[in-house]
Amino acid sequence: MHSLHPSEKLNCTSVSRSTQRAPACPRLFQAPLDATRVIAGPSFDRAVRPASRPQGRQNPPVIICQAGRGSGDPWWLKDNPANMKDINSIQELVDELADAGDRLVIVEFYAQWCNACRALFPKICKMVGENPDLLFLKVNFDDNRDACRTLGVKVLPYFHMYRGAEGRVASFSCTISKLQVFKDALENFSSPFCSLEPTPGLAEFPAIIAHPELHPEGAAAAAPSSIEDEAELHPLANTPTVVG
After folding, report:
1. Which of 80, 98, 132, 160 could cross-link to 107 by cystine, CB 3.0-4.6 Å?
2. Which Pfam families match (predicted)?
3. pLDDT (tens digit, 9 = 90+) per residue, 179-193?
4. Are 152 and 236 in contact (CB under 8 A)?
């Protein structure tokens, strides 16, 4: 019988011990051959192809670890009531104002990076949800910078209120510490209102009519005929707005 050298015995012992101590492969990281599993750890985007398995052996279900990931919607989309909508263009804003009729319409100008907007938003959502008759529209400042400047928005969060034929009835800035300003405006303009005239649209964008696809003749008449006319579409673009 061949006897092992003392150093070889030591190596065998080390290998044996390391084999015994090696943890079993957790079920979390087992996946079928045609799937890709996600490894939990600092990098969640690193995908690894699982090792091959003998044919005929049943593959366990894939379990994807999402530990450490934030759950839920971003703050500007979280807990939005049914009467709250996102606006992505001036055309959408004009259409919504026309469709609202005599309902009170509140437009908020916000930015995703604005801490004041984020702090105020849960309170706004609660009050909007408690007043289902009003329509609340959100305008992302970063996606509509030129339009926001034309509408006189120079501080965030900023609010416009519109009501039927009266057009814009209020504009103001509001933070979490001045929430009463929003409450007072909501109380002043949320009473029932009935007008016999159509909504005037936006004075800052007279060339934009509501639902131009339904009124092609009106849209053609309102379209600018020259560069000079186009420059006159935004008369308030360079007018400073004083928030009182």
Report:
1. 160
2. Thioredoxin
3. 999 999 999 998 887
4. yes
